[in-house]
Structures are given as structure tokens and as C-alpha cells.
Amino acid sequence: MNIRFEGARPRQQGAALVVSLVLLLVVTVLGVASMRTTTLQERMAGNLRDSNLAFQAAEAALREGEGFLEQATIPPFTGADGLLQRQTDAGQASFWATFAWASNSREAPARDNTAETPRYVIEELPAVPGEGDSVAFGALPEVGFYRITARGVGGTTDAIVILQSTYRR
Predict the structure, then answer these.
(1) What value does the CA radius of gyration of the chain take, rounded to a whole number of Å?
(2) Separation of alpha carbons 101 and 107, rounded Å
(3) Across 64-78, average pLDDT
(4) What are phi and psi of 131, to 5 degrees?
(5) Is there a domain that residue 7 lies in?
(6) Is 81 inside any structural domain?
(7) pLDDT tens-place string over residues 106-162
(8) What pLDDT score does 59 carry?
(9) Rounded to whole angstroms, how far apart are CA atoms 119 and 26?
(10) CA 24 from centre of chain
């Protein structure tokens, strides 16, 4: 025989409270992890944009240098104003990392959203004698070679791209 007392409550164990707190903790951990992932992806996308801007700026400076060499006459290469004689270490990244870009280079047109104006340097490489003779013109003249080195900076000064091309004139 069960006897029920009026007003008596059954004893509660508190299981619902513990389960809901555990679920709340799991949801919080998932939310924090997804926010960290989102923040990391946003930073990676920003860095990729910076490096892409730097590459485009360097490419524009390289094309500007090639356009400079397409003139009918070019000034003498005296080692000033971005017109250099051959630099023996110019193929090394360390040479360009310490090069005085602000004082001894030529400016390309400014680019939107970049931290600095793109710049370029043209080196005069040793000339190569023309090969053979032409029936109509006689001996062929020497062929001039030039190395163009361009530096572009992205949206921040942390993203720097240096490109080189060799130009035959």
C-alpha cells in the first residue's frame, strides 16, 4: 500500500541542470573554435591580397622599365637615377634587400591601395657582338642586353615583391 502525503515533493537529483551545463559548454567550445578559424582565414585572405597587390605593382614597374628601353635613344648608364652599370650580385636576393631603392631607382606610376610607389632599376649588361653579316646591311651591330629589376609593395610594407627580366635591345 502506497501512502501519499499531500504537499510532499519527490526528491530531485539535478540531472537536467548538469546535462544542460555540459551542452552549453560544448556549444561554447564549438563557437570559439569556429571564430578562431574564421579569424585565421580572414588574416590569410588579407595577406594573400597584400602579396597580390605587391606582385601587380612590381609587374607594372617592370613594364614601365621595358617601356623606357623602347625609346629611340636612352641616356648613358652612369650609376645614378636607376640606370646602373652591371652589378655582379644583382641576381642575389640579399643584394636587393639592402639596395637604396628610395635614392637610386626610377618611379613607376603610383598604384591604388599600395603602401609605396613601385620602383625599378635598369642595369646595362655587357654587349654581345652581332653574329654574321647581312647581305643588305653588312656586319651586324652589337646587341645590347639590360636587366630590369622592379620592386612592388602591397597594402602594407610587409608584402614586398621583387621581379627581374632581361631585355634585348
Answers:
(1) 33
(2) 10
(3) 93
(4) -95, 125
(5) no
(6) yes
(7) 999 998 899 999 999 999 998 877 666 666 676 767 788 999 999 999 999 999 999
(8) 96
(9) 53
(10) 43
What domain range is 87 assigned to?
16-168
Is 11 inside any structural domain? no
Residue 131 domain flag: yes
User: HEC profile for the chain?
Assistant: CCCCCCCCCCCCCCHHHHHHHHHHHHHHHHHHHHHHHHHHHHHHHHHHHHHHHHHHHHHHHHHHHHHHHCCCCCCCCCCECCEEECCCCCCCHHHHHCCCCCCCCEECCCCCCCCCCCEEEEEEEEEECCCCEECCCEECCCEEEEEEEEEEECCCCCCEEEEEEEEEC
Structurally, the chain folds into a number of domains equal to 1
Predicted structure pTM score = 0.75
Mean pLDDT estimate for the chain: 88
What integer pLDDT is reported at residue 3 of this predicted model?
Answer: 63
Q: By percentage, how much of the chain surpasses pLDDT 90?
A: 64
Q: Which three cell numbers stand for residue 32?
A: 570559439
Pairing of strands 83-85, 143-153: unpaired
* Matching residue, cell 630590369: 148
Q: Can you give the length of the chain in residues?
A: 169
Residues 6+ apart with CB under 8 A from 4: none
